[in-house]
């Protein structure tokens, strides 16, 4: 408020109040500079999403384009397939394992690193470096680490530790618990756990970085006050520090959910759709349906479902972030 | 005091154990890459090579060397162009708060959250119509356009930290939009370009979906080559690991030398103002 008042003083000296200048060449330049990006994104993001949505309502399910209207037939057809039903189960299981893994490991490591340790930057770098590698390389590498042979990879270690029947990791056909529901079996496909381990290895450093930034932003006075009140370190963390990390958790969950819904290269390189589609994902299904099966309209329908899932949580999140920013500016 | 020292020891022990776990795949990749095909036994995959050999690396390079160069031709121009666009966009949004600036920012940011499958069929049709399907320029175009949201976000947040007083002082001196950009903003932008550049380079180098959908041999980037090599039944593990290692080296080198800026990009990408 005060800043505005000072700035407005010169223009309030003349007897008649002048209208605030709303337009200037400089602001026009700013808008002109943004225009090409807005046009490009208007076409490549918004236009293409609509176009894709339109394709999903047509009969274009062969190599030759056919834009006759099909209504929701493609969506119904997709939902009836064994493959897409498996995808729904898999994406829920994978997202849950992935987010829980990243958040718990990320928070744990961030708290350890925040203890004013020596070699802090070395440890931090080690936990974050997998993020610099491609998902594809991660998939290839972890297929080797989690080699399904009983006498290879991590299984050698498990056997040395006394596990006589080590898992077959990403090749496992098991689904636990295997509850029949429609065509598919509901449960956690073990093969998917192997993929989730690789994904957590790659992305937990991100959660750690977010939590570390959050921990560093907790005011020292709050911690001091709690200590004076006699809070032990366990109590101090869960009652005082952890609530301060709520916004870090929200941010991490949003970004990780987006990453999880988008996961493609990792699965493609590590397992592919898997036995009975036990590691399949909507992204892979869309790709195969469209480019291997030439069922463009059905592929577009899967893509639209993916987009709607993503928009359902990213739009409210972005709006809330921008609102909060606005409030902070006005203060 | 003794208890504290014990606690500290446990702390370092736990951190070291986790560091070893995180580095374990690196150990396996590097040692496997340095074994010759004949020396590869699954049951000895954790052992160090008895005879160090570069034959796997040589063989992997013969297979993916051209793809590696494709990735360079792709990632370098796409990184430079999208960073420059992000810089002017970020400057406009951070320093010239016109009406509706937030709406514009929201419209741009949404582009970060779309699953690219949702635009893939139209992208391929448009690139085909433009004669760019299957080519690296086509892939550059796509990576630049879909990179605009994140680079704009990084630069907007970066420029928000430049005091408004500096802009106002330059305005009083008669500088306009471009004058302020050249004289004040650009000289302060080095770190912003490093953050945005590293982030974009890593994302574009590592991208697989657009690469596999848009390009055809011999224009495919290195990520596609890695998958092709891994998917081949006839190529042995040591060559697969060597190719995964080579494909990861450029981004890893960038990370090792400029990790601080990589983390800044990471945090900026999480849309916290």
TrEMBL record, chain A:
PROSITE patterns hit by this protein: ABC_TM1 (PS50928)
Record keywords, A-Z: Cell membrane, Membrane, Transmembrane, Transmembrane helix, Transport
Domain ABC transmembrane type-1, first and last residues per copy: 88-319
Family stated for the protein in its record: Belongs to the binding-protein-dependent transport system permease family.
CDD domains hit by this protein: TM_PBP2
Subcellular locations according to the entry: Cell membrane
Main location (coarse class): membrane
Lineage: Bacteria, Bacillati, Bacillota, Clostridia, Eubacteriales
PANTHER family noted in UniProt: ABC TRANSPORTER PERMEASE PROTEIN
Residue ranges of the TM segments: 30-51, 91-113, 125-146, 190-215, 236-261, 296-319
Highest taxon of source: Bacteria
Protein's UniProt name: Sugar ABC transporter permease
Membrane topology designation: Multi-pass membrane protein
Entries under InterPro entries matching the protein: ABC_transporter_permease, MetI-like, MetI-like_sf
UniProtKB/TrEMBL annotation, chain B:
The keyword Transport is assigned to this record: yes
TM helices/strands, residue ranges: 12-30, 72-91, 103-124, 136-159, 180-202, 242-263
Key words of the record: Membrane, Transmembrane, Transmembrane helix, Transport
Major site of localization recorded for this protein: membrane
One Pfam family it belongs to: BPD_transp_1
Location(s), subcellular: Cell membrane; Membrane
Residues covered by the ABC transmembrane type-1 domain: 68-258
Similarity annotation: Belongs to the binding-protein-dependent transport system permease family.
PANTHER family according to UniProt: ABC TRANSPORTER PERMEASE PROTEIN, GLUCOSE IMPORT SYSTEM PERMEASE PROTEIN GLCU
Name of the protein in question: ABC transporter permease
């Amino acid at each position: 408020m005060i800043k505005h008042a000072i700035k407005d003083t010169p223009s309030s000296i003349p007897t008649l109040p002048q209208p605030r200048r709303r337009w200037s060449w400089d602001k026009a330049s700013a808008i002109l500079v943004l225009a090409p990006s807005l046009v490009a994104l208007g076409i490549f993001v918004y236009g293409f999403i609509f176009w894709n949505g339109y394709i999903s309502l047509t009969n274009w399910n062969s190599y030759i384009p056919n834009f006759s209207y099909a209504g929701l037939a493609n969506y119904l057809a997709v939902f009836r397939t064994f493959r897409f039903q498996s995808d729904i189960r898999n994406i829920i299981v994978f997202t849950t394992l992935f987010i829980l893994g990243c958040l718990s490991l990320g928070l744990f490591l961030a708290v350890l690193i925040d203890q004013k340790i020596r070699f802090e930057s070395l440890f931090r770098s080690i936990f974050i470096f997998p993020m610099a590698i491609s998902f594809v390389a991660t998939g290839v590498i972890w297929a080797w680490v989690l080699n399904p042979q009983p006498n290879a990879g991590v299984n050698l270690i498990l056997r040395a530790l006394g596990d006589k029947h080590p898992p077959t990791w990403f090749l496992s056909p098991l689904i636990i618990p295997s509850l029949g529901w429609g065509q598919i079996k509901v449960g956690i496909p073990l093969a998917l756990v192997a993929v989730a381990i690789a994904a957590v290895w790659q992305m937990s450093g991100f959660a750690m970085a977010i939590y570390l930034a959050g921990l560093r932003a907790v005011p020292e006075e709050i911690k001091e006050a709690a200590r004076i009140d006699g809070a032990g370190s366990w109590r101090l963390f869960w009652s005082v520090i952890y609530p301060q990390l709520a916004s870090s958790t929200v941010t991490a969950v949003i970004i990780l959910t987006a990453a999880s819904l988008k996961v493609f290269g990792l699965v493609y390189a590590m397992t592919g759709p898997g036995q009975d589609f036990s590691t399949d994902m909507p992204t892979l299904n869309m790709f195969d349906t469209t480019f291997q099966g030439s069922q463009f309209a059905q592929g577009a329908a899967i893509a639209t479902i993916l987009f709607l899932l993503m928009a359902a949580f990213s739009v409210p999140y972005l709006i809330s972030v921008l609102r909060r920013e606005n409030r902070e500016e006005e203060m | 005091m003794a208890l504290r020292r014990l606690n500290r020891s446990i702390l370092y022990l736990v951190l070291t154990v986790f560091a070893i776990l995180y580095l374990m795949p690196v150990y396996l990749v590097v040692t496997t890459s340095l074994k010759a095909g004949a020396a590869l036994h699954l049951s000895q995959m954790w052992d160090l090579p008895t005879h160090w050999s570069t034959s796997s690396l040589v063989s992997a390079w013969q297979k993916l060397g051209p793809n590696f160069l494709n990735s360079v031709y792709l990632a370098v121009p796409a990184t430079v162009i999208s960073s420059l666009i992000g810089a002017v966009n970020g400057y406009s949004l951070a320093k010239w708060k016109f009406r509706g600036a937030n709406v514009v920012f929201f419209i741009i940011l949404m582009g970060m959250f779309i699953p690219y499958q949702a635009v893939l069929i139209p992208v391929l049709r448009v690139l085909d119509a433009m004669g760019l399907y299957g080519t690296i320029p086509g892939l550059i175009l796509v990576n630049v356009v879909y990179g605009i949201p994140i680079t704009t976000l990084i630069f907007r947040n970066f420029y928000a930290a430049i005091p408004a007083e500096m802009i106002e002082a330059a305005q009083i001196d008669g500088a306009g939009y471009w004058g302020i950009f050249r004289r004040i903003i650009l000289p302060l932008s080095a770190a912003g370009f490093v953050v945005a550049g590293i982030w974009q380079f890593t994302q574009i180098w590592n991208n697989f979906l657009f690469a596999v959908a848009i390009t055809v041999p011999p224009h495919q980037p290195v990520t596609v080559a890695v998958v092709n090599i891994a998917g081949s039944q006839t190529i042995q593990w040591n060559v697969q690991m060597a190719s995964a290692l080579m494909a990861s080296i450029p981004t890893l080198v960038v990370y090792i030398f400029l990790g601080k800026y990589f983390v800044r990009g990471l945090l900026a990408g999480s849309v916290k103002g």
